[in-house]
Specification:
This protein has a single domain, classed as NAD(P)-binding Rossmann-like Domain (Rossmann fold). It is an alpha/beta fold and 331 residues long. Strand 2, helix 2 and strand 3 form a beta-alpha-beta unit. 39% of the residues lie in helices and 16% in strands. The strands form three sheets. The protein has a seven-stranded parallel sheet with strand order 3-2-1-4-5-7-10, with helices on both faces. The protein is built from ten helices and twelve strands. Bound molecules: NADPH dihydro-nicotinamide-adenine-dinucleotide phosphate (NDP). The site of NADPH dihydro-nicotinamide-adenine-dinucleotide phosphate has 23 residues, from helix 1 and strand 8.
Length: 331
């Protein structure tokens, strides 16, 4: 089958494309400009015509994906802004919501052969900020971020603006399939990952140009910055495999699924970085066990994802070793 991947040049998406190709799918990668597709064409050259590009200059425009969806069997919709620099929350919310609803609308109208659409949401659409530790699951929704942005607008926190964009986009997707259930040939599966970490294969000019999540880990390991606190995480390769399994497993249809390897404190990553670095490495050793007393305010259940998708998630130790290799290669 052929799969349309939106935002194909992004950190997560390039791994999704690669995993799809490895599993024998043909892939149509949607990017904003021919320039943004060059690296992909080179990276996947060995797959010949099993990889093709489609240019979608503005995902917020009505009908933006009308041509892109024609002839594909499934969609992986990953395109959405992930950064904390927005002043006006609409900078994040518009492309998140309109991009999601737009691709679903194009699939409804022109995606006659489509069987499943997978949307990359986030635990940003699940979480709630609370003063005491909590363990959340797929029944939780982040109305809190939407309320904050509605009340405060530009004055809302950067985190709330991003979280509201993911929450509103995911809710819009579920509303869409409910509204049009009698008119569509496909069902929806939503991936809700926490912080995505691990090696990069997308185009990264320098460490400073890393995408938001990979940069956080880089700064923690290489610069010893941002070492307080922590979160939950998943390796980008496991998340990519989850996106592919979500197409293959019947039971993934109609489900939102948390894809979570577990909780970390930034100190833990430093501890695991103590395994390989040679004396010449600038990636400093951490202190093993330094994060063990961390209180994790937010954790997520991951049983549903493991049951439906059947993936054994990578350990922090393996992911840390792989990213350090990458940093050392980049120099
Ligand atoms: P990247 O920034 O690496 O990729 C984002 C992708 O979305 C790029 O292809 C980008 O295109 C595209 N995009 C962003 N804004 C727009 C816009 N306004 N119009 C069109 N395309 C746009 O981020 P990630 O790979 O990390 O994120 C991929 C998805 O995963 C997102 O939906 C994100 O919310 C979600 N996610 C990521 C997590 C993480 O920790 N990384 C955690 C949870 C969810 P361009 O290069 O042209 O800007």
């Amino acid at each position: 089958g052929k799969v349309l991947v939106s935002g194909a040049n992004g950190y997560v998406a390039v791994w999704v494309v690669r995993t799809l190709l490895e599993e024998g799918y043909s892939v149509r990668g949607a990017v904003r400009s021919p320039d943004k597709g060059k690296h992909l064409t080179e990276l996947f050259a060995s797959y010949g015509d099993k990889f093709e590009l489609v240019i979608v200059p503005d995902i917020t425009k009505e009908g933006a994906f009308d041509e892109a969806v024609k002839g594909v069997d499934a969609i992986e919709h990953t395109a959405s802004p992930y950064h904390f620099q927005a002043d006006d929350p609409a900078e994040l919310i518009e492309p998140a919501v309109k991009g999601t609803v737009g691709i679903l609308e194009s699939a409804r109208k022109y995606g006659k052969s489509i069987k499943r659409v997978v949307v990359t949401s986030s635990t940003a659409a699940v979480l709630n900020v609370a003063p005491t530790p909590q363990i959340l699951d797929e029944s939780n929704w982040n109305d809190q971020a939407v309320e904050e942005v509605t009340e405060k607008g530009r004055a809302a926190s950067a985190a709330a603006k991003y979280r509201a964009s993911k929450m509103l986009a995911e809710r819009a997707a579920w509303d869409f399939v409910k509204k049009y259930k009698d008119e569509i040939s496909w069902d929806l599966s939503v991936m809700n990952p926490p912080l995505v970490l691990g090696p990069t294969i997308h185009e990264v000019a320098s460490a400073d140009a890393l995408n938001t999540s990979a940069r956080m880990l880089h700064d923690a390991l290489a610069k010893a910055e941002g070492l307080t606190g922590g979160g939950c995480w998943i390796d980008v390769r496991d998340l990519a495999l989850a996106h592919v399994r979500a197409l293959q497993k019947e039971e993934a249809g109609g489900e939102r699924i948390i894809i979570n390897a577990g909780a970390f404190s930034w100190q833990d990553w430093r501890a695991y970085s103590s395994t390989p670095p040679p004396a010449s490495s600038k990636y400093q050793k951490g202190t093993p066990g330094a994060g063990k007393d961390a209180v994790h305010l937010l954790q997520y259940k991951n049983e549903k994802g493991i049951r439906i998708l059947g993936i054994q998630y990578r350990s922090m130790e393996d992911t840390a070793a792989d990213v350090i290799k990458e940093y050392e290669a980049r120099g």
